[in-house]
Structures are given as C-alpha cells and as structure tokens.
Amino acid sequence: MKEKLKKSPPSFAFTRRRFSSILGGAALFLSAAIARPTHAQVLSPLNFGLTPVFLTNDLELLTKLKAYLSRKTGRKVELVQRRTYEEITALLLSGQLDGAWICGYPFAQFRQQLSLIAVPIWRGKPLYQSYLIAPKGRVATSIDDLKGDIHAFSDPNSNSGYLVTASLLAERKLRPDQFFRKTIFTYGHRNVVRAVASGLAQSGSVDGYVWEVMSSLEPELTAKTEIVAVSELLGFPPIACLKTQRLSEAVELLHKALVEMSEDDEGRHVLNMLKLDGFADEPESLFDTIAAKMMLVRGLGS
Amino acid sequence: MSGTNPVSRLNPMTWPLSFKVPLLVAVLMFTVSAIITNRVLARLEENQEQHLQQLASAYLDGLSASLIPSVFRGDVWEVFDTLDRSRERYRGLNVRWTIVTNAEGKILAASDPAKFPSDIVAEKSVLAHFTDGKEVILNEEKATAFLLRPLPYQDREIGKIYAEADIGGLLQERRDVLRTLLLTNLLLTLILAIAGYLAVLRMIRPVRIMSLHLDQASQGKIELIPDSVVMRQSSEFRRLFGRYNVLSQAVNEREFLAGQLAEEEKVASLGRLASGMAHEINNPLGGMFNALDALKKHGTREQVRGTSIRLLEHGLTGIRDLVRSTLASYRADQRPRDLTMADLDDLRLLVKPEARRKRLKLEWKNEIAEAVHVPAVPVRDAVLNLLLNACASTADDGNVNFHARVESSALIVDVTDQGGGLPAHVREYLERDGAGSVPLDKRSGLGLWIVKRLCDEMNGKLIVVKSSASGTTIRLMVPPKPAELKHAA
Hints:
A: alpha/beta; D-Maltodextrin-Binding Protein, domain 2; six-stranded mixed beta sheet; five-stranded mixed beta sheet; about 20% strand; B: Heat Shock Protein 90; five-stranded antiparallel beta sheet; about 60% helix
C-alpha cells in the first residue's frame, strides 16, 4: 500500500499547461451546452391541430398548407388530425399543440383558457352560418317540420353541426333526443351531407361554409339536399391557442403566417383551395353569440 | 337395284359411303362437343360458384371485421359509412344492397337507406330469401345471390349482415361460353363433315370408275381403263385397275377367238352340208342318167318315155327341194320373219344325208300349223344344230326324235337322241342364263355353243328334259318376239 501511495501523483503536478487544457475542455463543454438548446429550438416541430370542421379529406390541401406554414414560420410543421373536436380540444388544452383550428363552440366552452390566433375571413367577413338541410324535394321550411326525423349532427362539440340546432330546440324547451326520433353523429360536416343525401338521415345540421364549398366542389352530392333553414351569422371557427402560449414565439410565427397568408402566392393558393379570403385578428366577442347559445342549451341540461 | 327399294333405303348399311362417313364424323363431333360443352359448363359453374363463395366470404369477412365495433355501439353513421365505402372495394361482387341489423332485428343502416330506412325492423318479404346457417344462396332464376353473415361479439350475436348480389354477369358469362362453344363446335363439325364428304368422295372415286367399267362390261362391252386414269390413282387402285385391264384384255381376246372359232365352225358345217348336198344330188343323178339313157334308146316307146320322164321329174324335184331349203337357210337376205311349219320341215332334208350315213331313223313330229311369232332363221339354225348334234351323239341304226309344237304363243322344240347322256358341266352350261357369250370347253365341240348363243339372242331357254345313258332330250323354248307381244296386247 505504501508503495502505491508513493506512486500517487503529487499535488504540485497541477501545472499551467495542464490548467490550460482543463480550461479548454470546459469551454468546449460550455459552448456545446449553450449551442444544443438553440439547435433543438430550430428543429422542434410546430404542432398545428385541425378539426373535422374543415375538408380534411383533401390530401393536396393538407400538403400545401403544411408546406406554406413550414416555409413561412421557418419551422417544421406537424398537422395533427383527430376524428372528433373533443380530441383536438383536449390536445390543445393539454399544451400538446401550439395552435389549432377549432370550432367556435369549444372556444366558447374554454374561453378562460384559450386565446384567438386568427379568424378566417369568408366572403369578406369572419362569419358563417349553420344550415338545416333535408333531402331534395322534401317540403320543410323550419325546424318544426323536421320533428320525428332521424337527424344527422356533425359533432357534439360543433357549433354549426350541433349547438345551433340544439339551441333552437332549447328555445322550445326540448332536447334533440326529445324532438327527433333518432340522432346520429357523423363526425364531419361532409358526412352530414352524405347522410342526408343518401336518405340515411331525413335531416341534418351542417356548417354553412362547408355546404357552400361542397356545392361548388361536389355539386352532385349537395344537389341531393336542400336548405331548410339558415341560422344567424356566427363567428367563424377560429384558430386558437392556450392563453398562456399566446405570446410565445411559435404562436407568434403561426399568427404571422396566417394573417399574411393572403399576401403570399403559396398562401393565396391555399386560401383559394379553402375558398377563404384570408385570416384576420378579431375580438373574442365575436363568439359571444355562440357562448349565449351554449348557455341556453346548458340551461336545459343537455 | 336394291337402291331403289324404299325399305332398304332406310337401312343405314345400304347408304352410300360418301354420305355415311361425313354423317359419322358429324355425329362423333356432336357427341364429343356435347360432352366437352357439358364438362366445360359444369366446370365453369363450379368455378363461378367457388369464386362467388370466395368473393362473398371476403366481402362478408371484410364487412364484419369493420362493422362489429360499430354495430356493438349501435353507431348508425359508422355502419352506413362502412357499407358505403365497401361498395367501391367490392365491385367484383356487384352487390345490389346490404342491410345491417342489430340484435333486435332492427335495421341499423343499409347501403341504400332510401329503400331500407334505419331504426325499423326489416320486412319479412325481404329477408325471406335468406336462410340461417347458409352464407351464400344462389337463385339463378332471379340472377341473385343472397348473402347472410351473423355478427358475433363475445359469443353473442349482436347483429346480422344481409346482402343481395347481382349474379346476372356470371350467368351471362356462362351463356356466352355456351353460345361460343356451340357455335365453334357446330362450325367445326360442319367443316369436318364437309371435309369428310370430300375426302370420301375422292377416296371412292376409283371404286366408281371401276363400277362404271364393270357395268359396261356386264352389258357386253368391255373397255379398258385408260392409262392416264390408272396413273392418277393411289398404288392400291393402280394395281387393281391394272389387273382389271389385264383381265379385260384376256376376255376380249377370248371373245375374239370365240368369234373366229364360230366362223370356222360355220365353214366346217358348210363343208359337211355341201358334201351331204352333193351326195344327195348325186343319188338321183344316177337314176336320172339311167332315165336319159332309156329315153335315148327307147324314147319312142310310150311306157319307157313316161317312166323315164317321171323318174327325171322325181329326181329334179328332189334336187329342187334340197336347193330351196339350202337357199332358205343361207340366203343373204336375213330379214326377220316368223317361223312356219315348212321352215322346220326343210331341216329334215338337211339332216337326212347325215341320218342316212349313220342309218338313223328320224322320227319327225311337226305340230306347227301356222306361222309362229318367233324369228325363223335363228330358230332353224339352232334346231339344225341340235339335230346334227343328236345325229352325231346317236350310235348307228339308232333313233333321233323331233317334236315341235306351240304352247302359250311360245315355240317348243324337243330333240331326243340315243347317245350316252350329257356331262354335268354341259348340262349346267346349257341351262345357265347368259352362258352363251363364252364357248363351251374344247371337248364339247361348238354345236351346242352356237345353239346356246342363238337361244340367248332370242331370249329363249334350253332345258335338258332328260339325260341318261339311254339318251338325252333337249328342249328349246323360244318366247314370242317383243314386237309381236305389243301387237298382241
């Protein structure tokens, strides 16, 4: 053991040269430690959620949108899709999405936690309507004519595809299951049109914007349906984020990309496919009407 | 001649080969094609059903896998959406409609909701075609396949899939195959039958040539088949035609020789006749010269003169009769004429020298009173030959019998000798129809052959009435001439 102790290096061996080498190594370590988060920041994808509010079956549109957002934000963009509004809203509320194109109804539901990034402008306004539709040739002029139907809703968390009709019934102190013989959820506005056009449902609640866009893209399908009633103008399904994230770099990049979309060739191409004029900053009060409907329906206990 | 018999026409054995072989080919082809068509259709049907079963199973497997969760949840839209999308995926099956019911039998959704609305119990008339436990039921009348698949979930049936598929395409395909097969086979059969007919016609052409020549030969005219025709035939028929030509040549030569022989016999007969006649004339001549001498010496005496003149007259009459009958037999004018009693009686004079030479007794019985409608010259020739033959056969001092009569317009002449009887082959020769075209063998002489030839020419018959060691009777029967028959009719 003594021998071993003797062989151990003396403390005075800490020379200038050795010190320099340790310093250099530390500097290298530090620089690497500083550089890594910056590199990660560049690579971390921007998660953007899409609800079935839109024509999510169009792969070309999704590709173009993703390409535009990626170029405009300078970040890799992941488009996250789920079958229901609820799933997207849950992902957004849990912070897994930087932003999401949700419906006015979830926005009204979680207004305390969510902020607007931008609102789409359609036909010059950030507004749209809900349509009550029925198979072509059916004699019906109001919701009252649809009593006893098998009725197709889009999604229980959709404003135009559920809430508007539910609130109409709530005004009559009725729940959908009391008014209609049977209700079905198709989880897609296009599916509501399909259900009504095929005769599976005798009537349906659909996003007016989707129906109008479909009537130019798939006229043979919408031609089998007709509009029974149209709601008042309501706030267009917005792009929202967590209130706490509103000022984050990711959200700001998203906001910029959306608002400036109409000024960019690629962006205009995407807007053209969406049949929208652009995206704009709008006040949250735009969704007050929807909130009121929500309160009305909730008041009935549905 | 059998070909004209309507009964034998129905007998396939008598049908011509040129008809039978193509018919046989056609029948065989039809049989083969019927068997093949049957097999192909049966196999096609089997394959189609198997294919349909597999397709139906795949369809139901695919549907039930995606439908079970939705049916379990009672999700009308998901059920409809699944059915709607499956329409694109299973185009090969041509499904008319599909219904999915829940455990209570209520329609959850159908591929055609307008026809089968949701949330009501499916009509019994619609479900009547389906049978539990049978996944696929084919109804060819309705050109429909009925598919049924229960939807199990944790050992419980939560619903059923009912589907109706149009199998008109499959049946049409089967009909198309049948039509194509029938048409192809019909065409093939027709082509083969025609080819068979032509081939057989070509094959039997040499037989027809041979048959034609044989027909001509049977009518007495034997012609050789030309070398150009012979050389065109296949080796078998070339050999056959060659042999036929050799045979025909031999027959023709034989005919020619027979003709020559006949001429020679005629000359020989003429010689014999001439010597007989000379003898016959010579006999009275001695008496006549004696009478002349008596006239010269004692012509002044009334008695001598009368006797001498009578003797001269008698002798000259004998000579005149002999010359007359000879002229009658051999005169150049051979115009056919009817036979008279005198024609036959003349023969007695012609035979007499031969009879006298052998000291034969001629028993003559001529019952012909008036002319008989048979040709006089050939009958006389034939009877003369028969008589000469009888004289030759009968031993010296014997009897030769002649008996002529008419029975049913036919002339019948019996000539009987006292010879040693006819050999069997001579008897067969005389009695066989048409045997006169060829001479009898050398041993038998030409007399009987000439008789047979003449008899055949007159369509007559020779019958050996009696033939024994004590003698022979040969009967010549000559029917009336056809012209006379017509006249009589």
